[in-house]
Amino acid sequence: MIKDGSLTIPTTTLGYDFDIVINGWEQGFDGYRVYTNGDIEPLEGNLGLSLELLSEFTEGTEWLAQIPVDYIALSSNYSEYQYLILWLAANSSAASQILQQRGILLALICDRYKVDKYQALKVAEMGQRLILSHFNLESSKAALRFLDKLKFSKTMGSAMYMIRIYLNPTDKLYLRFKHYDHVNDFCFFVDRNMPELTGSKLGIALSENKRRPDWPCMGYIFDTLMLGYEINIDNPNKRVSELSSYQALVELHNHWVQERIRLKESRPEDAHIPYDIPFDDCYDHGIYAVCTYGELLQESAEQEHCIMSYHRKIRAKTYSVFTKPYPKRVTIGISINKHSARPYAIDQIRGYKNCTASEETLKKIYQWFDKEVKKYRPL
After folding, report:
1. Within 10 Å of residue 83's Cβ, how many Cβ atoms?
2. CB–CB of 193/220 below 8 Å?
3. CA pair distance 369, 253, nearest whole angstrom
4. Most exposed among 86, 88, 191, 367, judged by the fewest C-beta atoms under 10 Å?
5. Contact (CB, 8 A) for 84 and 120
6. Where are the alpha helices (H) located in the chain, listed in sequence order?
7. Between 11 and 117, where is the model more confident?
8. Quick one: which of 230, 166, 171 has its CA closest to 192?
9. How far apart are CA 379 and CA 375, in angstroms?
10. What is the number of alpha carbons within 13 Å of residue 101 lying toward its C-beta?
11. Is the pLDDT of residue 270 over 60?
């Protein structure tokens, strides 16, 4: 039942045939759909938006003020499920306690029971370890400590997926992070793509480095390893994993780049043979193919990155390299898999010393790429 002090969210202005009405905190925080024909229907579960959006208008700010401030702050970490989490806290002292101690468990519940708030409420009152058991997840004290380490981005759907994988009681993958103080999206990304780094000095250091560029960092690691193999470093994986910081990774990468350049005279036997090029040059956007080993070496030397190590893949027709000299020079790497339904994919777009390209440059490159792939012609 809609009560005094409720808030109306005018979703009809967005094209829906109903508005959302939510009762006040002390009135149970129940939500309703109020249709244009006067029909009223209870909200079965989650609202699917952050309540912080309500602070954009006066009525919303006043209405939010009745909710405990710490509850708003804690639930905002899981904005995708914020309404349902707060509804649970408003209707259950057990859920309220979980929100203050380990809110990620409420997010896990809300992810499973998005449209069944009463089942969500029932599970929230089980107790923390029993909640994990209910979802067939590892429920040890160590598993709870693992949850306390998690620092996720605002996109919670992928976070819930990763929690289910790592708390699988058969594999117990969460134990791989027992030496970490914090575990974030990047830690999972590294573990799924290069598991030997997890638990290493570098893996732990990267998880704690707030200034590192997360996703380009992974490309930097791959580049460094490829350089190591190219210049015949003994066990480059071990060398990289023992590094103690992101800066140490950058320094090793740059050192191996220079070492590879010094070895440029040891040219491969097929260096004189031009490369097979899948795409046309684009004079409008200033994008040109790297056509020979000499050009590849020059691109690598002038850009100070390891694109020269892709020579073998280019020769095997599984890779192609282009350059865009202006306004700021970038190197474009395109992977080729002739057995795939989409044989061409942009693998990398790197500036000087692996810097990220500008949005305008990326836009032009993808326009050119999309146009070229439509012409698909196998090498």
Report:
1. 24
2. no
3. 29
4. 367
5. yes
6. 58-64, 69-75, 82-91, 93-102, 104-112, 117-124, 128-134, 141-149, 156-166, 185-193, 201-208, 214-230, 236-241, 246-262, 293-303, 311-315, 359-373
7. 117
8. 166
9. 12
10. 13
11. yes
Edge-to-edge strand ranges of the sheet holding 288-289: 288-289, 319-324, 330-336, 344-350
Measured CA to CA, the distance from residue 259 to residue 248 in angstroms comes to 16
End-to-end, the C-alpha distance of the chain in Å comes to 68
Q: For residue range 118-156, what is the model confidence (pLDDT) as tens digits?
A: 999 999 999 999 999 999 999 999 999 999 999 876 666
Query: Which pair of tokens denotes residue 305?
Result: 């990155």
Nearest to 186 by CA among 171, 201, 154, 208: 208
Q: Report how far residue 325's alpha carbon sits from residue 322's, in angstroms, rounded to the nearest whole number.
A: 10
Task: Tell whether the model's pLDDT for residue 211 goes beyond 70.
Answer: no
Q: Which long-range contacts (CB under 8 A, 24 or more apart) does 225-230 make?
A: 226/306, 226/309, 226/310, 227/253, 227/256, 227/257, 227/259, 227/260, 227/306, 227/309, 228/256, 229/309, 230/260, 230/306, 230/308, 230/309
Share of the chain above pLDDT 90, in %: 61
User: Which of 222, 209, 201 is closest to 306 using CA atoms?
Assistant: 222
Cis peptide before 325 (omega within 30 of 0): no
199 forms beta bridges with none
Mapping DSSP to helix (H, G, I), strand (E, B) and coil, where does residue 169 land? coil
Pairing type for strands 150-151 and 288-289 reads unpaired
For a pLDDT cut of 70, what percent of the chain falls above it? 94
Q: Is 179 exposed, middle or buried (0-12, 13-18, 19+ CB in 10 A)?
A: exposed
Q: Which of 323, 313, 324, 331 is nearest to 379 (CA)?
A: 313
> Tokens in use for 345?
């994919």
Closest CA to 127 of 92, 173, 90: 92
Residue whose entry in the numeric block shows the structure tokens 């061409």: 344
Residues contacting residue 169 through CB under 8 Å, at least 6 positions apart: 136, 137, 138, 139
Residue-wise pLDDT for 66-96, tens only, equals 999 999 999 988 888 999 999 999 999 999 9
Widest Cα–Cα separation across the chain = 83
